[in-house]
Amino acid sequence: MEIVKTPSDLKRLRKSMQGSVGFVPTMGALHKGHLSLIERSIKENDTTIVSIFVNPTQFLPGEDFEKYPRRYEADKKICELAGVDILFMPEVKDIYFEDEVKVKAPDVLGYVLEGHFRPGHFDGVLHIVNKLLHIASPDRAYFGKKDAQQLFLIQQMVRDHFMDVEIVSCEIVREPDGLALSSRNVYLDPDERQKAQLLSKSLKKAAKMVQMGEKNSQKIKAQMEEILQPIKVEYIEIVDRNFKRLDTIEVGNSIILVAAYVGDTRLIDNIWI
Ligand code: PAF
Q: What stretch of H or E contains 269?
C-alpha cells in the first residue's frame, strides 16, 4: 500500500494507473461500515484509493471537529490488511486555498433535515467531495446509505456538474443490536450506548408497521416518537428517494430518517423502504 500526502502526487500516480479505479473517501476512525465500502471497491475495481481527511469545512462552529476521533496508525493497518492500493492522507494546507471558488449545496435540499439542523454542513461536504473526486479521478466512488441526504446530494452534484464518476451507494452496517456503525459511536458511554439502540429500534418498528400495511406517515412517526422518548429527537421524517416529504409511504421509494442526541452525541440513522 502506498501512502500519498499531496494532491499533486496522487494526480501523478492516477495518470499511470491502468484499469478501473474505485475511491472511498472517509474521515478516518475506520470501522466495519467503512470496511464494507473498501471491500466492495476492491472487488469491483483494479485499483482502490481510500482517503482519510477530517474535513474542517463540514463542521459547524461548536461541533466536534477538534475531538473527532483521529486514529491514523490503526487506520493505516486496516487499509493495508484490507488490500487498499493507495491511502491518500492530505493536510488541510494542501487541500484548501485562501478565498476559494466554492461548491455550494442546493438552496432547498441543502438546508432541510440535516441541513436545517447543521446549516452549511452540506456546503462543506460537497466542496470537499468535489475536490477529492477531481484529485482521485475515480471511475467509481463509494458512499454509505447511512448518510442518505449526503449520498443524494453527492449524486446530484455529479449529475449537475456532468462529472464522470459512478456513485455507488452501499448498505448500512449495524452492530448485532441494530446500532448503525458510526465513528461517533466512540463518544457513547455504556448507558448512552444502550439508549443509542433506540434509533434503529424505532426504524425497525416503522418497517414492521409498513409490512403490516400501515402507510400513513403521521401514524408511523407517532409510534417512532414513543420509542424515542428517552432521547432528544431532532427530527423524524419520511421522504421519497428524491427527498420530497411523503404523507403516505411508497414502498420501494421511501426513506425513513431519524436524528437524535444521545447525551451530547448526535446520531443519525435511516431505513430504505
Ligand atoms: O461521510 C463522510 O465521512 C464525509 O462526509 C466525507 C464524504 C468523507 C466528506 O468529508
A: strand 265-272
Residues 90/53, Cβ–Cβ less than 8 Å: yes
Domain spans of the chain, in order of start: 2-170, 183-272
* Ligand 1 pocket check for 183: Cβ under 6 Å: no
How far apart are the CA of 143 and the centre of ligand 1, in A? 8
Residue 190 CB contacts under 8 Å (≥ 6 apart), including other chains: none
Ligand 1 centre distance from Cα of residue 58 (Å):
9
Partnered with residue 88 across adjacent β-strands are 4, 51
Q: Is 55 in the pocket of ligand 1 (CB under 6 A)?
A: yes
Cα(165)–Cα(46) distance, integer angstroms:
15
CA–centroid distance, residue 76 to ligand 1 (Å): 17
pLDDT score, position 157: 98
Any atom of ligand 1 within 6 Å of the Cβ of 129: yes
Topology, domain 2-170: Rossmann fold (3.40.50)
The answer to whether residues 163 and 233 touch, using CB atoms and an 8 Å cutoff, is: no
Distances (CA, A) of 52 to 70, 143, 153, 208, 245: 10, 14, 20, 37, 33
pLDDT in tens, 104-141: 999 999 999 999 999 999 999 999 999 999 999 999 99
Do domains 2-170 and 183-272 share one topology? The answer is: no
CATH topology for the 183-272 domain? Pantoate--beta-alanine Ligase; Chain: A,domain 2 (3.30.1300)
